[in-house]
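Exercise 3.2. Students should predict the tertiary structure of the chain below and write it as structure tokens, then compare their answer with the key that follows.

Predict this chain's 3D structure.
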Amino acid sequence: QVQLVESGGGLVQPGGSLRLSCTVSGGIFSVYAMGWYRQAPGKQRELVAHITSSGITNYSDSVKGRFTISRTNAKNTMYLQMNSLKPEDTAVYLCNAGGSTVVSGPYWGRGTQVTVSS
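Answer key:
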């Protein structure tokens, strides 16, 4: 059974930084394309960043230049470095495995809350 566990969320002031992690167990991490999604209250879930098994990355326009997605296959872990955070980045961030940039994969974590507020 594939399990994804996110960590690293929290409360940060505008302009601050956070690094999220997603650790995968029960599957072959290195073959999965991985994605970070977010969902704010009353809004649809949206893809924030995506990384293929070979390391090709894609970002939503709203985070391009501020967020960086990466992965360490030896640790079965994906990361999201978030800089210059804005209040509109406040959401639950979820990791996803096995999807593309147009459709999510079958495996989801439970999410970690990111709150950007002064």
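Discussion points: The chain has a mean pLDDT of 96. The chain has no helices and eleven strands.
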